[in-house]
Amino acid sequence: MAEAATLLDELDVLIQKGIYKDRESLVRDAMRSLLRSKPELRGQLAVELYRQGRVSLCRVAEIGGIDMESFKELLGEAGVARVIPAVGGVIENEVEQLLPRMILLPEGLLRIKACKSSPCKLS
Question: I want to staple 68 with a disulfide (CB 3.0 to 4.6 A). Which of 7, 26, 61, 90 is the partner?
Fold first, then answer.
């Protein structure tokens, strides 16, 4: 751990010289360079970020530098289960909130009564 601190302290010279505005921009540039020079790390990083739930499937495919379908295969090969957010409960809740406000018109059409609040909020 002391070696890492020493390395960062040495890299601070680049910040002091004005080459980088802060440590974060220096580390970000270093990471980009590392991932460019070792493309295999991009896939490994992307898989691990997804496994930890830190990024979405779309974002992680972008990080990995491959299309979404190829990344899905990569996840399968790494034994990582894809997480698909459940939307059924959310939709069901919204429908339950809309049903009491629906009016059947003589033409067989549905109309929804306006909310008291503007804009109408579903919770």
Answer: 61
